[in-house]
Amino acid sequence: MHWLVPYPATDATSGRIVWYCAQELGVSILQDLHRQRQTITHARDTLHGADDNIATARRVLASMSRRMMTNKLIMAGIALLLIGAIGLILYYKFNH
Q1: Residues 72, 65: Cα–Cα separation, whole Å
Q2: Confidence of residue 23 (pLDDT cuts 50, 70, 90)
Q3: Rounded to an integer, what distance in angstroms lies between the CA atom of residue 18 and that of residue 21?
Q4: Containing H/E element for 31?
Q5: CA 88 to chain centre
Q6: First vs last Cα of the chain: how many Å apart?
Q7: Residue by residue, what is the 3-state secondary structure of 36-82?
Q8: Looking at residue 1, what is its pLDDT?
Q9: In the chain, what percentage of residues exceed pLDDT 90?
Q10: DSSP state for residue 4 in the 8-state scheme
Q11: CA 80, CA 87: separation in Å to the nearest integer?
Q12: pTM score, two decimals?
């Protein structure tokens, strides 16, 4: 953009030059704003995708935690059942 004109101009010519420069500046600003809007929109979409992935991961981790607790309870139950069976076997072996 040419803000300074290297030659003397008449009032009508200088008015047109100022108008042209202002128009160029306005177009440039609108283009910059459009690019920034696209950047922000892309960033927002990326963040929404990441948020969805985090929510999915949270659900998977909660499910894995429940399964882990269930497995621990089942193993504890089996261990108690085996200890009880061994106790019964020893009781009948030494008492009969």
Answers
A1: 11
A2: very high
A3: 5
A4: helix 11-95
A5: 57
A6: 109
A7: HHHHHHHHHHHHHHHHHHHHHHHHHHHHHHHHHHHHHHHHHHHHHHH
A8: 47
A9: 77
A10: S
A11: 10
A12: 0.54
User: For residue 64, which amino acid is it?
Assistant: M
Task: Please enumerate in sequence order all residues whose Cβ is within 8 A of that of 14, keeping only pairs 6 or more positions apart, or say none.
Answer: 5
Distance between CA atoms of residues 57 and 35, nearest Å = 33
CB 21 within 8 A of CB 2: yes
Number of residues that make up the chain: 96
Express each pLDDT in 28-67 by its tens digit. Answer: 999 999 999 999 999 999 999 999 999 999 999 999 999 9
* Tokens matching residue 77: 């139950």
